[in-house]
Each structure stands twice: as C-alpha cells, then as structure tokens.
Amino acid sequence: MGKITAAITAVEGFVPEKVLTNADLEKIVETNDEWIQTRTGIKERRILDGKLGTSDMAVEAVKGLCKKRGIDPNEIDMLICATVTPDHIFPATANIITDKIGASNAWGYDMQAACSGFLYALVTGSQFIETGKYKKIVIVGADKMSSLVDYTDRTTCIIFGDGAGAVLLEPSVDEDGIIDSVLYSDGSGITHLHQKAGGSVKPPSHRSVDALEHHLYQEGKYVFKFAVTNMADVSAEIMERNNLSSDDVAWLVPHQANKRIIDATARRMGLPDEKVMLNIQRYGNTTCATIPLCLWEWEDKLKKGDNIVMAAFGGGFTWGAIYIKWAYDN
Ligand SMILES: CC(C)(COP(=O)(O)OP(=O)(O)OC[C@H]1O[C@@H](n2cnc3c(N)ncnc32)[C@H](O)[C@@H]1OP(=O)(O)O)[C@@H](O)C(=O)NCCC(=O)NCCS
Description:
Elements: E1 5-14, E2 19-21, H1 22-26, H2 33-40, E3 44-46, H3 54-69, E4 78-82, H4 93-101, E5 107-111, H5 117-130, E6 137-144, E7 162-172, E8 177-185, E9 193-195, H6 206-210, E10 216-218, H7 220-241, E11 249-254, H8 259-269, H9 280-283, H10 290-298, E12 307-314, E13 318-325
Parallel strand pairs: 4-5, 4-6, 11-12
Antiparallel strand pairs: 1-7, 2-3, 6-7, 8-13, 9-10, 12-13
The site of coenzyme A has 20 residues, from helix 2, helix 7 and strand 12.
C-alpha cells in the first residue's frame, strides 16, 4: 500500500449576513471608499451579531461540512479550531464546537498562530492522519474580528471582518492531499501586532479597558513590509522544493490581508490573476477563516489533481505555505 496522505475531502464556509461597507465606515471614522479600496482591495466585510461568538459561525460551517460529506458528527475523531478570537480564554472553542454539533467521539483543541492559524492547524491535523491514527479530522478557521477591533481606529477597523471555514481531512493513498509544508515563526514580531491586555501579563482592569488595550494593535506599515516579503518568499520556496513551475500551479490560495500583498505573492510565483483566489473585496481579513473561505467559494472550480499552494502571514510573526494536490471533483 502507498503512503497515507491527508486529503481534504470536503469544504464549507459561513459568513454572517450583516454587511459593513466602506460607506458605512466613512460615517464612523475619517476614511473614504477610494482610500480603502486602493490601499487594501476591500469593499465590504461581514459582521456577526454581537450576542454570538466565534463557535456559532464555526458550528454552521462544520454542520454544513458533515452534511456535504454525508457523515454523522459522531464519526469525527478530532477537531482543531484555529482562532484568535476564542469564545472564552478557556475552555477551548474546539470543545464548544464539538459539544454544539454533537461530535461526542471527537477530542480537539485550539490553535493560536494568528493569521497563519489555519495553515498551522492543517499541518498539525494532517500528522494524525498520516500516522494512521485517525480517519476523520475537522480543521476549522474561524474569527469574530469585530470583537477585537477598535472602531475608532481607522488604520485597523477598515481591514477586518468575521467568518468561519472548515475542511474535512481523511486518509488517501492516491498521492494527493497535503504534499508538503513550510512553516515559520519569529516571536520578536510581537511588538508590531498584538493585543496589549487581557492575557496573564496584563489581566483586564479598568485602566486597560479605558486605555483601549483589549483591541488589536497593529503597526500597519511595518507589518506590511514583513508580510509582503515573507509571504512571497515562502510561496516561492514551496514551489522550488517541489519543482513546481508557474504552469504547474493551478491555484494560489492566499491569506486575504491586503490585495497588494496577494498581488506581490502572485507576481513572485509567476501566476496570472486568474489563478489567484481573491475574496478580500467582500469579506476583508477574517484572520483564520480566509483560506477555508476561499476554498469553499472556489470548490466548484477545483479539479482532482490540481496543484494548489496556500500561503499566509500573520501576527507573531507567523507565516508559511502548504502544497496540496486537490483530491476530488465536485
Ligand atoms: C494597514 C494598511 C492597510 C495601511 O496602508 P499603508 O499604505 O501602509 O498606509 P500608511 O499606514 O502608510 O498610511 C498612509 C496615510 O494614510 C492614512 N490612513 C491610514 N488609514 C487610513 C484610512 N482608513 N483612511 C484614510 N487614510 C488613512 C495614514 O494616516 C497616513 O497618512 P499620512 O501620510 O498623512 O501620515 C497596510 O499597512 C497593511 O495592510 N498592513 C499589513 C496588514 C497585514 O498584513 N497584517 C498581517 C496579517 S493580519
């Protein structure tokens, strides 16, 4: 028997109905549609009802995933949830999701790697499939970024949105699925992108709330420089490692942080726009959900055997790329 690989066998996504447009933001902060579109590529993003949490979006995605694949939630062995906006600091959102969907045989945990979280989680989950230990693992990427964003800060509130995506990993012996991955992190990046309070270093206090320290803090220009270089480099690296030419690559699935970062990555890989999944204009940056949301929206176009490169960059800093061979025709 050939080597067991972990193949994605179904994809599902969920975005809230409420739309926050650039025109809406013009009423809240000093900004304009033209600036936002030119500098980021974003036109609108989705916002979850304030009373709901990240798990509520994830549950919709995972339920849809099970329905699509025709499996009962009890068949799921393990669920990993990549998120920076867990329902609670503890317990893990993964546990809350498995409880809500009735996946009583699954164990799981949360993966925190900021915008690279989905890639980190996918690589981690794939190991449990490759060893033969498990047969069905759900990888979720979900974030309610509206719970973290300061809507008085025009440099960040224009970027982020809410959403969730999920994929099912199952064993394959067809030499498809996750073929290779390159993941990196550099903890010195914390200065430039983080949440100042709410953790053990600075627990919540009246002072931290008054100082708006529970919101996302980003030095956009600095992060941009790092992101644009590293996302392009790691995408070129995974192509080189696997002897992939730009003709060989069917799709780039990039993290949707800024259209200019995506364009630079595609250029470096020698890919035309038609091979790049792009939904940033409609959803903004949904952090851990961007990549599975793209796969969900493009699923109909994907063909068995397609070479796909996923690439991300996020806070931490974290970044990486995964090369997969798509495992099914829809
Ligand atoms: C945040 C980001 C969109 C800002 O774009 P930028 O081109 O770097 O813009 P700058 O921060 O240099 O700001 C340029 C000018 O626009 C202004 N500006 C910032 N936000 C604005 C807004 N929403 N509307 C209008 N003007 C704005 C700035 O104040 C600045 O004005 P100044 O020149 O008078 O000082 C961009 O830096 C970015 O996408 N960064 C990386 C995000 C990322 O990848 N994160 C990691 C993964 S989550």
